[in-house]
Specification:
By secondary structure, the chain is α+β, with helices and mostly antiparallel strands. It has helices at about 80-85, 160-175, 195-200, 210-220, 235-250, 255-260, 260-270, 295-320, 325-335, 345-355, 360-365, 380-385, 390-405, 465-470, and strands at about 1-5, 10-15, 15-20, 40, 45-65, 70-80, 100-105, 110-125, 135-145, 155, 175, 180, 425, 435-440, 475, 485, 495-500, 505-515, 515-525, 530, 535. It folds into three domains: about 1-145, Sandwich (Jelly Rolls), CATH 2.60.120; about 155-470, Glycosyltransferase (Alpha/alpha barrel), CATH 1.50.10; about 475-535, Maltose phosphorylase, domain 3 (Sandwich), CATH 2.60.420.10.
Length: about 550
Amino acid sequence: MKEYLLPKKIISVDGIVKNIECLFEKKEMQIGLSEKDFVEMQETSSILLDYGKEICGGIRLLIYNFTNLPVKLRIRFGESISETLSNIGDKNSTNDHALRDYEITTTNLCDIETGQTGFRFVKIDKITSHPILRIKNIYGVSYYTDKKLIGKFNSSNKLINTIYDVANRTVSLCIQNQYIWDGIKRDRLVWIGDLYPEFISLSCLYNDLSEVKNSLMFVKNQTPVTSWMNHIPMYSMWWLIILHDYYIKTNDFDLLESNVDYIVGITNQILDNITDDGNTVFKSNFFDWPTSNTDDEIVGVHALTIFCLKKTYNLFKYLKIESNHIKFKLNSLLNKNINAKSKKQVKAFLAIAKNEFDSSVSHFLSEDNSHGFSTFMSYFILKALFESGEKQKSIDLMIEYYNGMLKMGATTFFEDFDISWIESTYGIDSLSRENKKDIHGDFGRDCYVGFRHSLCHGWSAGVIAFIVEEIVGIKLLEPGCKSILIQPFLGNLEYINYKYPTPYGSIELKIYRKENNIVVKLNKPKEINVIVKDATLE
């Protein structure tokens, strides 16, 4: 779906620019011969606009010039004001994967649509001194999914509602061209490992998950069974994990059956890299960027391998294929004494993979509150903290962590974020401030240093699945959502309203306090069996 947006704010103007306020006015989206309301950019001048929220696309300029003399413009898009003002190379500012800094030439009485990137701000520099440039409108061109949103969440806590809605916008923006992109400014690729938190969040939002299926098959078709997906061994594991959970959600057995040879092939390749005494011996290891080249990286890979083999064992059972060899290697991994040293996401993932939750897990994950959290792994960190008994604490730290990005002006959630970054820092919607750091240009690490850092990254939306699985309390018991457990945890909340998408239609839930009880009211498709626990069904 394409939508045209008027700018919400003028951040700055340089040089002689007249009648710029007319850009806020909705006009016919057609250039005419007798326009009376337009911006005049004289000599060399520039304007910096804010469209109010992150969008995927570009801009549309309606030019009202009666001369064949060309006017050259420099267009700079940015996810933050500071990125928009940067030159290529400044604090790692790039044109990687999607052009965000380039020049165009306009002509007389034209209608130009330009740009295909992720941005909120745009700076237009008039490079040519003469003639005067007259612009009727500068629309933001937004490409957004036209899928019907089912999974609408509302509760008595407005901040949780905002976190859910911003996460929804983040991952929904990454639905592009019938696939799931990892990010809309830079990582316009299908990264199979990164797809997992995107998939589990999308499954809470939409009935139609065709883009997830397309993404699974796209990477599979590009990867011979003897190779690793995205050239990373662990990403072939993620493919099996997503395929399993996709089947549980959709009951699409045809997808499993049509890929049985591939499933068996990559499973055997993974098993070949596990020794009988429970060590993984992949030639390269990758768990996530914050653990890369740390002592915890191999522990994370160990935990991921357990997680993968448990789900793969189930896949083989669904397909009625002999699976004792999987069980043997899985047990060897489970019997290995291995633990996280410093990274919260590794501690959390290991606890979930082994299904072992105790006070040592909760203490490790809650120490220093949300410091050390990871956007990619936020779902696992929050879930492990919740399952280890610190239910309200997990919700409080979810709010603290994601609200940190909101305080920095986020309208979508970032590729990575550390809560310590916000100290003495100005946000993405602010001009530079003396003696303060830039949340965008002065932080980031590994492959996303400075302005290369993506501020709309689908993997950060896993928080949606945490809210749905643990706060609303929805867990799938049978493939295709045929049997569902609802075990809500209101904590400090007074009520929750939520619609959950299933292959048979949506389940409408109202969960609220009544005297000393938690009450659940629901409307559901007749094909679905619902079990309610720790609450009263009305």
